[in-house]
Amino acid sequence: MTWDAGRQEFVAAASTELAAQGFPAMPARVLMALTASDEARLTAEELQSILGISAAAVSGAMRYLILLGFVRQTTVPGSRRHLYLLPDTSPWYTATLARSSIYEHTTAILDRGAELIPEDSPARARVAEMAGFFRFLQRRMPLLLDEWIAERDGLAGG
């Protein structure tokens, strides 16, 4: 499969930016290739061809992206080939906002850590503040998602 230069440039630029922000490089490339595809779905072989990467690289990137809920996996009808697609119901970038429960475990660890550190320690105050921050994120993420959906719907209707 050959892509036009514009899509190649987009995938390179967008995945580089995501990686600069801390997203793993190979999953970023794969995610941006799916995003740039007209059907929002590609086979493992197509991803290998488009990105010039190995089957193992596709597999590793997909494990990560599926775990985050950014991508779904199915098979090509009538074959055993894997087909990867972006979710129909919610764009991949909203997955983080929709999964605010991911902060529960982090908060529990931080709360327990704060209990283990002496009360008068500056470290305990820092750990407690971190726990408070993650509780704040957990409360705000669903609200941010609601705000985004309302704004997106307003943009589509306007």
How would you describe this structure in keywords?
158 residues, mainly alpha, Arc Repressor Mutant, subunit A, 2 domains, 3-stranded antiparallel beta sheet, transcription, WH_DNA-bd_sf, HTH_MarR-typ, HTH marR-type domain-containing protein, DNA-binding
DSSP strand tally: 3
Order of helices and strands: HHEHHEEHHH
Stretches with pLDDT under 50, minimum 5 residues:
none
Major β-sheet, in short?
A: 3 strands, antiparallel
Q: What is the CA–CA distance across the termini?
A: 37 Å
CATH overall fold name of the largest domain? Arc Repressor Mutant, subunit A
Overall mean confidence score, pLDDT? 89
- Kindly report the name of the CATH homologous superfamily of the largest domain: Winged helix-like DNA-binding domain superfamily/Winged helix DNA-binding domain
Number of separate structural domains: 2
What's the overall geometry?
elongated
Pfam family, one: MarR_2
Domain HTH marR-type: 22-81
Organism: Naasia aerilata
Protein name: HTH marR-type domain-containing protein
